[in-house]
Amino acid sequence: MRTLRTFSRGGIHPPEFKAATADKPIKNAPLPATALVPFSQHIGAPAKPLVSVGDHVEEAQVIGESVGLLSAAVHSPIPGLVQEFRTIYLPSGVKTEAVVIELFGKFSRSGKPVQRSDWGSFSKEKILGILRNHGVVGQGGAAFPSHVKFSIPKGRAFEVFLVNAAECEPYLSADHRVMVEHTDDLIEGIQIVRRILNPTRVVVGIESNKKDAVDILTRAGKIHDIEVVPLKVKYPQGAEKNLIEAILDREVPSGKLPIEVGVINASVGTLVSVCQAVRDDRPVIDRVVTVSGGAVKNPSNILVRVGTSVRDLIEECGGLVAEPERFICGGPMMGFAFSDLDTPITKGTSGILALTSREVRYFSQTACLSCGKCIEACPMGLSPTTIYKNIDHGRLDEAVKEGLADCVFCGACAYCCPAHIPLVSAFRAARGRHRRLSSRRRPR
Amino acid sequence: MMVSKALISSSPQIHARGSTRSVMAWVLIALLPAGIWSLFLFGLRPVLVLAASSGAAVLTEYLLNRIFRGDNTLGDLSAVVTGVLVGFNMPPHVPLFIPAAASVFAIAVVKWSFGGLGANWMNPALAGRVFVFSSWGPSMTKWTLPALGGNGVTDTISGATPLGAVKVALTSTTGGMNGPMGLLESTGNPVTYLDLFLGRIPGSLGEMSALLLILGGLLLVILRIVNWEIPLTYLGTFALLIWVFDGGRYGGGLFSGDVLFHLLSGGLMLGAWFMASDMVTVPLIWKGRIIFGAGCGLFTFIFRSYGSLPEGVSLAIILMNIFTPLIDKFIVPKRYGVGS
To answer: How much is the pTM?
Structure first.
């Protein structure tokens, strides 16, 4: 038997909890009666609103334009009337302007035949422009604008395009279902990116627990010159730096981006968006979301319009059967807890979980036992206990020297800490504090 | 706006099962067989000793909690573990104030004066033992022959531990003896390896049966509470050095040491599986723990073979505890994307 590739440092094996949704075909959510659409659904500058209260908007009409170098456009997910503007907080803590659109009028796209364009004749610049104007962003979590990601910085040697299909977060199976059900769109999305980047290799990294997807993609990959690498099931296999090491044996230098070692990567959902934007002229107005957790009646993978509220989405999955202890946007390891059920689905929402107290498990915190489990778990080769103790004693500079800036907030350390020290939240807070301090120190 | 009652917390939202309390509880469970065995050997006396040591440990922890108005730390069970380990290190018929004093010293001086659980740099139970050993030496070296002893004698008769008997005998004889077992036989205290393995010899009440301590230790290794590195390198290094050099003491050449006798005697098994592996006072990463274990083996060998006292486990482990911060300073994990 071939040994599966994986990253070398650390990693943990939380229970997968994927069985509830992994075999369920993606279903379509009904269109929301009202959509709450944030203008900041991506990293970078928020989109600039182009509509005002009372305006009538068409389905997929641009309502926020991409401004500046790092930004992405936002589109209306439904036809309707602009009701009001609101300032909301997303689960990640980002504060953003959002627009409330009430469903009204005719659909200009849904149910209509799609005119496929022959993108083979498009120039690189034209494709990047489409991505920018159609609001394509990374769908794996960070929501980095794709037209920026797929632009090779001057003077950098690019080699490998890496498709991140690890989906290592427990519960989530949206990417898995997309790979199985929308293989053609995924492959075409890869081909479009290949046209932009012209890589020497295209590699798909996928955890081996998605056997059907591995088989389908391996078959398709043979035709299209795409290497498919099944990976060992280990969290966080899908963290980009670890994925790069697992597949290519290269380490991205500390503080640098993957392009430093000739790699650009994108997730499955992103590539399907790329395909739909370029081939079908369809902006990003929906995405596949895994709705799961012990408190949800019918856990599902569901294609849902951006701006749909969590309440509507959970209702669509049969509602709640137990009192949830936590609502989570994303996966349970890196996702954000929220309590406002009006929270909208955005382009970066990979999952909505409603976990019961049995799934969350509450433990009280004790002092650190120096057991070293956090070091064994850290995929970046850091010593979380050392960094934490430095932060705890107010030695921020020492913590940075120990590698605070390299932490990817994967949560492996805090997951296995028997003293249940909130390591990730301490690191996140310390990083913010350090950023503020160092910007203050810099001479003007 | 409709807000649910769900809580907000930082990621990760799910956690593995283990807790400080469960770690300590498993250590107690792993110690249980050896504790029960001591009841067979010494009757109810070990219950009194363990009650004195654990009671004093818990009471000290409680009072310090009250005085410093901190969190209640009794629930983490670490004080109980310290108390039980102190008791395990006592001769069965020791006056009861001694284990109590050892526990008070362990908790108040060794653990709390450095900041409580996780902050001590020396194993509290071992430090407590060394403290009372230097304070009330005679009481700490009065041993009892176990009731199920190989000689079939009752539990009130005093005797020396095999290691102690060997140490004494070696000062009066010169060479030509057939190793420690032969030496013991010639002094009228014959033992078999099986006696040593099962604990049918005089000794501290918890260190009697190598068998039960190994089983308890293996349980903790399987549960990943004890890391394999320390027991393995400790026992391995010690066995190797004994084999190579210890024969010399009995007039033999190199490579003639009695490994089995030394592995099964004294506090080695208790020390290697339950004291040297105490996570608080050992290095953080496995490479460091290998150095730590090897150091324990080296110093135990030196103290046992060449020291003035028959035993060396406590001092060897405490000595390596002192080196732990140094080891942690230099043996660090290799970071991703840093260096070549």
So the answer is: 0.92
